[in-house]
């Protein structure tokens, strides 16, 4: 019998979409006669149990120390849940929390580990796992010996498969954890700073990546945005270089957007970027590297140099502009 | 205050990635190598902290092709000392395998704060910072930025999706997987680099720890399936522009 333990995350007041994706995967890997355990650390964890109907059992940690995410608390809870559950497979999301937890829990519990997982199947000896590597340039297929921990890319698995209401048996971890000796403390959580625009509301976005080369070149992309009636956005390196404000960042640690048009220039398409824009209606990608992973999710692509293409686009748009 | 920064070389993605003959790894013989971009951010944050509070900075790397030059670069950027770790056989160690070697060196250094990039593009078997946190039994935080040193602790920001951030106070010693430095990495002039190459001292240390096992066998590496991917335009920019705008018009988007 296969046992799977899933680390659940919250998004605001609800169970996160990615956690349902993990629960669906957990049930697929455990089979109907296997067992799925969930771990939920939240201010009032019991409130969320009905949403975790896929799970047979839920380890919970509630109260003040569980109210907001703190790496140390979640790690202690995950290590303890794994100790009690003795799972064959542990699933965490490749999220900020997952980055803290996956390798640490694997080392603490002596689990093998595969990261950036996007597909997983049982085979007689363990698991066959497909994962992304080199910023999505290559896909690795690995044979994994159990017990194993998989860190799973958000969006890779079906969410509906994990949405089922029910009443998993609750196991309170509070008495099994010593949270009196904390080595880190949460000072505050801040909401995203308000900016000049909310790019999540834009109908069209022109997104620039590192390929734009420098701050001085942004003007040309801004002109395209204006001609298309689009807002300008950027990939993480563009924001970190100070070329655009943080409020305009698309991706895992930025905004999740789904405009009708997503026009990206010099963006390679790393998994952390795709996470924020793959649901856009029509994606146009300009990247001179034909192997760039952005072309996997784009609808229309071109390998022209962006500095050759931009003037050609602008000329045509200016001619048709009223 | 002593800050250790771990630096790693990774394949340069602006080069083509060729597979090795066995189809299970990349051919490392010809591919260009570059300092892991997040490690570069970690180094910059360490040097900024040195400027702000007088901490000393040690850069650490595993011995291997290009590592010495990388450490000389770190000295040119403001690291005080550079240490090259030797004593292992493999040409390439992933983050999980390498963690015990770094942990051994870090214990000997008595570092107060260990900074390393949040990830590398090769972290198929997990990221370095959380492995180190467990091996050293120090608190660890990943996806972090904006470190400020305090008395016996530091504060930092952890980033979540949607732009939310937490401000966390962490007791030292600690391990941090850095996302971005508080300022973009500084430019190092060629003359400074030359000087570091001439006079920069690199210390060699032998580590004896065994690599961390991971019973995972990579069976194959391959480019992703492109069958559902983008339709491609003509190569000529004028033609491509016409095709792109025609596609937008056909869908009735963003054309006035
Ligand atoms: C925890 C975590 C969170 C992250 N969150 C985010 C996030 O929210 N958003 C995000 O974007 N990234 C995020 N990243 C970073 C991500 O891993 C990538 O590093 C980043 O997306 C790469 O940005 P890029 O595509 O602009 O740059 P690169 O990967 O450097 O790509 C630049 C591209 O431009 C092309 N190019 C260069 N010159 C030209 C030209 N003249 N014409 C046409 N094409 C050209 C190149 O071929 C290349 O493909 C995160 C990483 C981590 C670890
Ligand atoms: N209201 C909440 N209560 C407890 N944990 C939360 C809450 N909101 C977010 N989290 C946790 O904070 C971490 C980061 O969230 P996210 O913004 O989705 O990356 C996740 O592990 C969530 O589970």
Short descriptors:
heterodimer, A: 322 residues, alpha/beta, B: 256 residues, nine-stranded mixed sheet, two-stranded antiparallel sheet, 29% strand, binds flavin-adenine dinucleotide, binds adenosine monophosphate
SSE blueprint and pairings:
The complex is a heterodimer of chains A (322) and B (256).
Chain A: E1 3-7, E2 10-11, E3 14-15, H1 17-30, E4 35-41, E5 57-61, H2 71-85, E6 89-93, H3 96-109, E7 112-123, E8 126-133, E9 138-145, E10 148-152, E11 169-172, E12 184-190, E13 204-208, H4 218-228, E14 231-234, H5 236-240, E15 261-265, H6 271-274, E16 282-286, H7 294-297, E17 300-302, H8 306-320
Parallel strand pairs in A: 1-4, 1-6, 4-5, 5-11, 6-10, 7-10, 13-14, 13-15, 15-16, 16-17
Antiparallel strand pairs in A: 2-3, 7-8, 8-9
Helix pairs in contact in A: 2-3, 4-8
Chain B: E1 2-6, E2 9-11, E3 33-35, H1 37-53, E4 56-62, H2 67-77, E5 81-86, H3 95-109, E6 113-117, H4 128-136, E7 140-149, E8 153-159, E9 165-171, E10 174-180, H5 190-199, E11 202-206, E12 216-222, E13 231-232, H6 237-250
Parallel strand pairs in B: 1-4, 1-6, 4-5, 5-11, 6-10, 7-10
Antiparallel strand pairs in B: 2-3, 7-8, 8-9
Helix pairs in contact in B: 2-5, 3-4
Bound molecules: flavin-adenine dinucleotide (FAD) and adenosine monophosphate (AMP).
